[in-house]
Amino acid sequence: MRTHKHKLNKIMGILPGVVNGFLWVTLLSAMFAIMPISSIFATKTRESKLNDWALTKADWLQKKLSPVFCDLFNNIISTKNAAIGESESIKLPFTVSKFRVRRDLEAQMLELVNKERRSEGLKELRPDEEMAVLARKHSADMFKRGYFSHISPEGKDPFQRINEEKIRYYTAGENLALAQTLQIAHDGLMNSPGHRANILREGFGRVGIGILDGGIYGLMITQNFRN
User: Fold this and answer.
1) Which residues contact 95 (CB under 8 A, 6 or more apart)?
2) pLDDT tens-digit readout, 81-93
3) Coil, strand or helix: which one is 152?
């Protein structure tokens, strides 16, 4: 009887409930952070310190839930139309502030592009770091402000962005893609006449590719070509 009333025993009795509650908060924090919706809850959760810890400790959660959100993602950007036309604009139902540059995928996409060019007897494109920096900036802007378009919300087109960076060119072009995988993005570009024309344009000699990985939100890809 005295053991039951002991303070240590009471503390130990409370401890499982505290731990259980903390685990649920952590789980919900991670879930809110990766949900592809724009909500005050998702935004606040992504910005919290608890969420930083939760996402670090629970990467598996995103992998488990990713298939659940694939259908929603494809309703926003069709698998067959991962690319977007020159005058089109899509408002995304989410924003992404935490993403990472995927230089490995940029190198792989350059190889995919050059494979297409080789098959047509064209000279391979050289990697262009100046244009890659510009491409990453545009990909980041689209993620952060939740849009998918060659034209920024202020009305700036690709050529204005190139000129602002004081990058010299005679001819230039831009391709955009948003997809769950690199191959889907590449196929979408090649299935679009305008984007395919840029990839296979004989007058282009260099390309800068900017790929940002938004996790469950997909890959935001910008290709900037110049002579």
Assistant:
1) 38, 143, 144, 145, 146
2) 455 556 678 899 9
3) coil
